[in-house]
Specification:
Elements lengths: L7 E7 L2 E7 L3 H5 L2 E2 L9 H12 L5 E7 L2 E9 L15 E9 L8 H9 L9 E6 L6 H4 L3 H14 L3 E3 L4 H4 L5 E6 L5 H11 L7
Parallel strand pairs: 3-5, 6-7
Antiparallel strand pairs: 1-2, 2-4, 4-5, 5-6, 7-9, 8-9
Helix pairs in contact: 3-5
Length: about 210
Amino acid sequence: MNHKKTYNCLAIDTPLGKVIIEGPISPEHLAGYEFHAGLKAFRPPHQQREALIEIAGLDEGRIIIARNKETIIGYVTYVYPDPMERWSQGNMENLLELGAIEVIADYRNCKIGKSLLKVSMMDDAMEDYIIITTEYYWHWDLKGTGLSVWDYRKVMEKMMNAGGLEYMATDDPEISSHPANCLMVRVGKRITMNSVQQFDKIRFQNRFMY
């Protein structure tokens, strides 16, 4: 599959200054920016920066960033699903996972997350993919936001909806382990019925639930 990537850019005004949302960006482009110390949800900031540079260099890897001047204050990643997860079982070349989205606390009410998703989907090549994200409540910053599990879930759903991702049912045991967990999906306009059926077989593996 030809993993074509077309760069897009959007500028938004926030109370903390102008923020540029751009991508997919190259590893070289990414390496030229500072990485805010507040981006530490998944690993220490310097390690996360290196991980993003590595993802940006993958054929299918996509990194969209939000930056204030030369400092990255948010990002979203798209990669193939982890080989250890069920979503990789079909070896679908046109299935990408929104693996991580993070915005520093200072900008959380500035619609940065929604803007990252909107810029992601500006690239016409995204119509050739099924995009998934798996949301688990134990990954959410409930303490930092002061939100309940259900309020946080609503925030996440609204943000994902901005990128065209919608809730889909699944019998995945990890997602089914708590009612707040969910699978969200965007099916590109050029996805064939064949690919949809292949994806449905991955979503539902217990024949009694299919």
